[in-house]
Amino acid sequence: MDSLVCARQTGKVKTALVSLMALAMLTARGEDAAGHYILKGVMEVGSELLLKSDGSFEYTLAYGAADYWAKGTWRHKDNSVVLNSAGRKEAVFPGVANARAVAFEVPVYSIKAGPFEIKPSDNDFYFEINGDAITEVLFKDEELAIDGKDLVMKYWNQEQPMRYEKQ
């Protein structure tokens, strides 16, 4: 009788250990993806991706005079990392009601011109460039393949993916 009780307890312990090991492996796979990644092998482009262990991310890319950024959440899915930006799509040129002048404004570069009054018989024109709408990258379920310790992004070019190396 004692051997039967002992066998049952051993079976329960084995089941608990296997469950804990499986949970640890799944957790470790997700935590392994967290870290700081730097773009490698693309001339004249600088880019970094920070996957935080709390499930948030920060992304930057600079190419010449163009700078892009994103913030949001990430999750581990199969053999990839999925990014979702926190931002929402905004108009690059937001409208203004009842305008009676023409003005040009580029907040990204702190440039303003005008306003220039127009006659009531003229049409109303107002141009403002929304810098965030131009520079914010809106990832929507963007999958980055995990390749060893690297992440491979196809967002910018499907035929020439960008490789981010974990630091």
Percentage of residues in strands: 35-45%
Low-pLDDT runs of 5+ residues are 16-30
- Gyration radius over CA: 26 Å
Q: What letter string, H or E per element, gives the SSE order?
A: HEEEEEEEEHEEE
Beta strand count: 11
Widest sheet, order of strands: 1-2-3-4-5-9-10-11
Number of helices: 2
Overall mean pLDDT stands at: 79
Which structural class best describes the helix and strand composition? alpha+beta
Helical residue percent?
10-25%
Distance between the termini: 57 Å
Architecture overview:
The structure is a single chain. This protein is α+β, with helices and mostly antiparallel strands. The protein has 2 domains: 1-33; 34-166, no CATH class. It is built from 2 helices and 11 strands; from the N terminus they run H-E-E-E-E-E-E-E-E-H-E-E-E. The strands form 2 sheets. It has an 8-stranded antiparallel beta barrel with strand order 1-2-3-4-5-9-10-11. The chain has a 3-stranded mixed beta sheet with strand order 7-6-8, with no helix packed on it. It is elongated. It starts with a helix and ends with a strand. Mean pLDDT is 79; it is low at 16-30.
